[in-house]
Amino acid sequence: ATCGLGCKYGECMGPNKCKCFPGFTGKTCNQDLNECGLKPRPCEHRCMNTHGSYKCYCLNGYMLMPDGTCASSRTCAMVNCQYGCEEVEGEVQCLCPSGGLQLGPNGRTCIDIDECSTGKALCSYNRRCVNTFGSYYCKCELGYELKYISGRYDCVDVNECVANTHRCNLHAECLNTEGSFKCKCKQGFRGTGFDCA
Questions:
Q1: Which of 45, 47, 56, 125 has the fewest C-beta atoms lying within 10 Å of its C-beta?
Q2: What is the pTM of this model?
Q3: What gap in Å lies between CA 33 and CA 21, rounded to an integer?
């Protein structure tokens, strides 16, 4: 088979009969085929013709899938939230699992809210706030211990004198106070109670 004018982007199949490679057209396969103008359209959103081929593009908020379709890039699988997300009216919102967490600047990870420093935590008398990731708890103040008394837990004063956890001098007597203790040097001794001479 001979093709007098040749087959630029194809092969000669018979006398002056060319079979064009994909993306080319014309009697001698010298013209680029505009795939973007074909029916059905090869791209879902936007198409750009190139020499011998074409490229598909998607509108903002969509990503090109391997089959040439455009899928919303705002899906939970694509956003990669730390603790999961919800889709509302096509928009994706990352979620945080507790009220003690808030979305960070990147909109995907959750950061802790320090309830103790923001004043959101309410601890009762004799208890201090301890922040945790996503929450907080109330711990007995120093000098108090948690005890189960008459059907409920309460922070009660530790008697350091009875428990022998005081640091009073050998020549001092221990006096228990609410949440603490005092040391007083015995008769015939002078000092702070921690030092007696």
A1: 125
A2: 0.47
A3: 10
